[in-house]
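Sat 14:20. Reprocessing the chain from the morning session after the first attempt stalled halfway. Input below, unchanged.
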Amino acid sequence: MHRLFQNFIDLLFAAESPSDFCSTIKIISAEFDLSCFAYLSLADTPEGKPRLISTYPETWTSHYLLNEYQHIDPVIQKAARHPEPFRWGLDLADREISTQARELLAEALDFGIRFGFTIPIQIGPRPVAALTFATNEKRASFDHCIQSNERVLQLMAMCFHAHVRRKLSVGGTFDRVPLSRRELECLKWAAQGKSAWEIGQILRISRNTAADYLNNAKEKLGVRTVIQAATLLAAANKQKQN
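Finished this time. Tokens:
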């Protein structure tokens, strides 16, 4: 178990993108025979958007986010009220929940999401995220795995959340466009004339990863080249100094 946890931490330190973090959980979950998971980080502000990293079917996750189901999802609502991990299943529909929540559960069943184990993540008294492992059928092996590794999974969830927040959180708003911390860092170095390879060396990430961050920033800013994006940033910084 110690070696598995160390491998998990190593993968978290190496992860730089949502797909990297998804792969990290996928690799470790396979060791526990937990193939289906979803990490949902709640928005910091009412107008913000949640972050979802998951192996659930993309058609379901897209539908979930589009309809802002996090506001009515009974699993997320319970995670917001109770700090301790909990198991859930078809009995959720038998409780006193809204018609919308009942319809949500019915839709989730169509995608094989029937039973699960959810780990709430809180900062102080405030709920900020939840990590769920789900299955389409009630299996003894699933229950045994959860029972045997509950505290380890809880610790992994906390570590996962901390690294996601540190690496993927929005780093600032530039020209009214929110850029992630890494996107802003890469763009600042590009504005100083650094290439993607040089930025990768400075930030200890690969050249391709640095290039991806620069391209993301470019697309968000609505310009055609990284040079144009870097020029905009340099001009904005100069204007602030004046």
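The longest strand covers residues 126-135.
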